[in-house]
Amino acid sequence: AQKVTQAQTEISVVEKEDVTLDCVYETRDTTYYLFWYKQPPSGELVFLIRRNSFDEQNEISGRYSWNFQKSTSSFNFTITASQVVDSAVYFCALFTGGGNKLTFGTGTQLKVEL
Amino acid sequence: EPEVTQTPSHQVTQMGQEVILRCVPISNHLYFYWYRQILGQKVEFLVSFYNNEISEKSEIFDDQFSVERPDGSNFTLKIRSTKLEDSAMYFCASSEAPQYYGYTFGSGTRLTVV
To answer: Do B45 and A101 touch (CB under 8 A)?
Structure first.
């Protein structure tokens, strides 16, 4: 069975601070895909980033970066120089072909204040 | 950019009534999904649909739920006899190839059962 754990339920930072959201996953599949979605107060789910299990290279995309480590089954997401508009709930999610579904973590509420 | 369209955005219904939630997936997508999110909680998988049949469903998706793709463009979720605990945000999603592109989610239908 697939499982995604986001231990941080809520994080508050001051604007321009860097913030890292943690995600730990469990799966028996050797091929899997990891995602981060953002849910702003308006409620929609917005795709942010994706990583497959074969590629542990960490990347940066604008203010977003992620750290994928198979050895610890972690897929952490960092926002650099946070802004008030980053305030949202962030969900980590796991897709395995065997399951044919995206399994979400419980989400981390990020509040960025002035 | 192509979108997944859900209607209505908000529906209020009386307990025991039937509701149909409608979705228009992105036209070239082949995989379709319904998820729900009870207020403040995680996003839960309900059902996946591919090649005109259900490919997987969760324990939540019991006999009171059904899905249909009636005309090649719409994808509907029917709840036969609504209960108070069915009150939630229901998200439709579609994908061309979920492991590569993730899902594109609609903006959701907020169902309130009174």
So the answer is: yes
